[in-house]
Amino acid sequence: MERILVSACLLGRPVRYDGGAKPVGDEVVARWRGEGRVVVFCPEVSGGLPVPRAAAEIVGGDGDDVLDGVARVLTEGGEDVSRQFVRGARLALEAARGAGARVALLKESSPSCGSLRVYDGRFTGARVPGHGVTTALLRRAGVRVFSEDQVSEAAACLRALEGSGASR
Ligand code: SF4
Fold first, then answer.
1. What tens digit of pLDDT does each residue of 82-105 get?
2. Which domain of life is it from (predicted)?
């Protein structure tokens, strides 16, 4: 059975910067949980950041640029939390590898978990195309990352991997 890494906040865990969650409330995700295929993970908490914590955005690029050391993750107050974000990304990849998960469903627009868009670094709510630090590292390792708006695409990906019997 293919496992899937899922953002903890999408499963109702109160781990967001504001102490809240963003439960996805999708019956497919509920079924995955019942099947025992979900690996729950929050990169920012695992990376050492508290709940609640200051909101942070990527300044100067997206998650790839942070991994490459040419952009930083900053709080609105200017604290550099790049190290915690990169550590969280590495731990997310370890968790995925440890569970054999080749697919992930992560919270859109987060500076860690975004897969299509991220906030633009000006703390105005504006978003730009790009992906977060964890998504960038997972994708470099070959993990297929989808957002909570793409549950059916993630489900199709799981089915395809199971149907193909593709080896890791
Ligand atoms: Fe959710 Fe990811 Fe942010 Fe954790 S780092 S609160 S899992 S979006």
1. 999 999 999 999 999 999 999 999
2. Bacteria
**Cα 96–Cα 101–Cα 105 angle in degrees, nearest 5:** 85
Domains in the chain, number = 1
Contact 52, 17 (CB under 8 A): yes
Rg (CA), the chain: 15
Closest CA relative to residue 103, chosen from 142, 62, 140: 142
Domain of 33? 4-17+24-164
The ipTM (two decimal places) reads 0.99
- Measured in angstroms, how far is the CA atom of residue 27 from the centroid of ligand 1? 21
> Given its phi and psi angles, is residue 93 left (phi above 0), alpha (psi -120 to 50 degrees) or beta?
alpha
Tokens representing 15? 């781990």
What DSSP designation does 77 have?
T
Q: How many CB atoms lie within 10 A of CB 151?
A: 18
8 close to ligand 1 (CB < 6 Angstrom):
yes
Q: Whose CA is nearest to atom 3 of ligand 1?
A: 16
Distances (CA, A) of 120 to 44, 53, 82, 91, 147: 19, 19, 16, 25, 18
- Ligand 1 close to Cβ of residue 63 (< 6 A): no
